[in-house]
């Protein structure tokens, strides 16, 4: 009998890109086996999708309540052990809370909830459930991101002096300039997305990444957001000044109206000895910058990399790895946690990352609405 972790998925059916990403990622390392879930709001479409991807339909359900009810009737060695939530934002909190209350492990897409208050409730629920909870800040799974984290913690760049994160996309341009279209997309609907579009969607990736890489916590922020049109309730562009502990300062620049940009996510961290730069569109290159020396390029798979970086590298040097591999490394870390194996705390983002991400989103909107003032980020 297979000892793989039995995985259920909520959402992600049809031609959903995020669904493909999670299914492929979960299949890496042979740690998980997708056995069922609720792929669509219509049961027949969920069943048809299960048949299309070649899994049995006996653990495919019409809704989450039915999934929980029926799964808890099964013996533990047949029951779904972990559920990935890939639905629109407004469903993350009620689904995750119900799953935790019934003893399931959870992997949740970001943002974790639509409000900070919901995130705090989830955090308390997890404490009582004592299960595993991961938030898929996907880019933390890249080997050279993990190498950058290691080098900074190791003191290779010295004391951090400046942090700069940029996340530019242009995808919302065809929507935002059309009044009817911007009223019809769920991304710009506060009831479904929460209070922020750009900062909530990609700005939170940058926030999590700068804390993950630097090992520092953001203490306070000042945000200037752009809504572009008076009838648009959701930001689609913004600049956030950030202050860390130890007098370190930086900036997060995020935009979904950066015309022509695809997924331009870049993080640069400068110390008093050297600087490091990583670019998501070229994820296998980590640039090491030093005064008076040529720029060096570090690549995955080489023995000069850290154990954490090498553990997330599946291919020999010179063979590119990408977004599927990055998500796969997060799933691998979650598998270790579920099986109570030793793992590095940098292997997957936890509920604390999700909690701080939601606090960042709300504080950014608060800072902007109060007239671009400094506001504090809560400790967690």
Please report the distance between the alpha carbons of the first and last residues: 41 Å
The domain count comes to 2
Judged by helices, strands and strand pairing, the structural class is alpha/beta
Strand content: 15-25%
Q: What is the share of helical residues?
A: 25-40%
Mean pLDDT: 96
Strand elements, count: 14
In CATH terms, what is the fold-level topology of the largest domain?
Answer: Dihydrodipicolinate Reductase, domain 2
- CATH homologous superfamily placement of the largest domain: Dihydrodipicolinate Reductase, domain 2
- Outline the biggest β-sheet: 9 strands, mixed
Strand order of the largest sheet: 13-12-11-10-6-9-8-7-14
At the first level of CATH, the class of the largest domain is Alpha Beta
Shape: globular
**Which second-level CATH architecture of the largest domain applies?**
2-Layer Sandwich
The protein's oligomeric status is single chain
Order of helices and strands: EHEHHEHEHEHEHHHHEEEEEEEHHHE
Pfam family, one: GFO_IDH_MocA
Protein name: Gfo/Idh/MocA family oxidoreductase
Domain GFO/IDH/MocA-like oxidoreductase: 145-276
Organism: Winogradskyella vincentii
Task: Report on this structure.
The strands form 2 sheets. Strands 13-12-11-10-6-9-8-7-14 form a 9-stranded mixed beta sheet. The protein has a 5-stranded parallel beta sheet with strand order 2-1-3-4-5, sandwiched between helices. Helix 4 runs parallel beside helix 5 (116-129) and helix 5 (116-129) packs antiparallel against helix 13. It has 2 domains: 5-138, 3-Layer(aba) Sandwich (Rossmann fold), CATH 3.40.50; 142-316 and 351-369, Dihydrodipicolinate Reductase, domain 2 (2-Layer Sandwich). By secondary structure, the chain is of the alpha/beta class. It is 36% helix and 21% strand. A hairpin with a 6-residue loop joins strand 11 (275-279) and strand 12 (286-289). The chain contains 13 helices and 14 strands.
């Amino acid at each position: 009998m297979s000892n793989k972790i039995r995985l259920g998925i909520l959402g992600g059916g049809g031609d959903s890109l995020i669904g493909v990403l999670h299914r492929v990622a979960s299949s890496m390392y042979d740690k998980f086996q997708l056995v069922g879930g609720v792929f669509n709001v219509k049961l027949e479409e969920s069943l048809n999708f299960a048949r299309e991807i070649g899994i049995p339909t006996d653990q495919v359900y019409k809704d989450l309540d039915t999934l929980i009810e029926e799964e808890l009737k099964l013996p533990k060695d047949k029951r779904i052990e972990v559920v990935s939530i890939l639905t629109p934002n407004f469903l993350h909190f009620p689904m995750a809370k119900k799953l935790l209350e019934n003893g399931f492990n959870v992997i949740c897409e970001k943002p974790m909830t639509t409000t900070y208050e919901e995130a705090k409730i989830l955090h308390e629920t997890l404490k009582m459930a004592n299960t595993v909870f991961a938030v898929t800040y996907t880019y933390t799974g890249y080997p050279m991101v993990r190498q950058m984290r290691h080098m900074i913690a190791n003191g290779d760049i010295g004391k951090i002096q400046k942090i700069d994160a940029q996340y530019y996309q242009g995808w919302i341009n065809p929507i935002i300039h059309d009044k009817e279209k911007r009223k019809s997309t769920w991304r710009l609907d506060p009831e479904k997305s929460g209070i922020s579009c750009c900062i909530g969607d990609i700005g939170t990736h940058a926030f999590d990444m700068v804390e993950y890489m630097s090992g520092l916590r953001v203490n306070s922020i000042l945000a200037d957001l752009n809504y572009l049109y008076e009838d648009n309730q959701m930001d689609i562009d913004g600049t956030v000044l950030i202050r860390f502990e130890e007098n370190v300062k930086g900036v997060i620049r995020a935009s979904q109206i950066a015309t022509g940009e695809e997924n331009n996510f870049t993080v640069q961290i400068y110390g008093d000895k050297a600087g490091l730069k990583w670019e998501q569109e070229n994820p296998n290159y980590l640039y090491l910058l030093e005064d008076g020396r040529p720029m060096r390029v570090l690549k995955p798979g080489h023995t000069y990399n850290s154990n954490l970086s090498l553990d997330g590298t599946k291919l020999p040097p010179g063979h590119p790895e990408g977004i599927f591999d990055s998500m796969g490394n997060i799933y691998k870390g979650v598998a270790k946690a579920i099986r109570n194996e030793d793992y590095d705390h940098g292997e997957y983002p936890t509920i604390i990352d999700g909690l701080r991400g939601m606090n960042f989103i709300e504080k950014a909107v608060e800072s902007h609405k109060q007239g671009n003032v400094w506001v504090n980020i809560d400790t967690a």
